[in-house]
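Below is our example:
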Amino acid sequence: MLTLSTLPTVELATRRLSFRLRADVEGGFVCMKGPKAKPSAETAGFLSSGGETAPLSGLRLLVVEDEAIIAFLIEDMLEGLGATVVGVVGDISEALASTGAEGLQIDAAVLDVNLGGKKVDPVADALAATGVPFIFATGYGRDGVAPRFANFPVLAKPFLAEALAVALLSVLGGPPPRIAPD
């Protein structure tokens, strides 16, 4: 018979959250607060850049994500990479208001493809129209992204901070991707 102490444990930690997850005998998960996990040597080295400037240092980013825990994790990853998160919004109307907000300077954005059952396309269109680069983060993979956004990076959830940094740097390092004609 399996006991709680013999079941697999997964630890997840950010600067704000720390969880220890153990599978129960039904295959679900029990969430229990636990000691904060330490990042791997590879991740710690990438995030600290060996004392150099963090890879996204000085950038102001918008996060458009409707799942609170995922939004917190993305925000935490971005801050760990040196970025300043200027907003975290969870629906289309809030996101559109943020893209047009006077005085809100955004260097780039991370967009979930599906916000409460609605496609994020109007937000992507608004960002593209103003020249703000963005990437998609989705559990649907590239198939969840409208064909006109085929030139934009897509991160498949779940993803690591390193992948997030690489995707953002790819749209910030040169001319922004263009929306493909329908």
Q: What stands out?
A: The domain at 41-172 is CATH 3.40.50.2300 (Rossmann fold). DSSP finds five helices and ten strands in the chain.
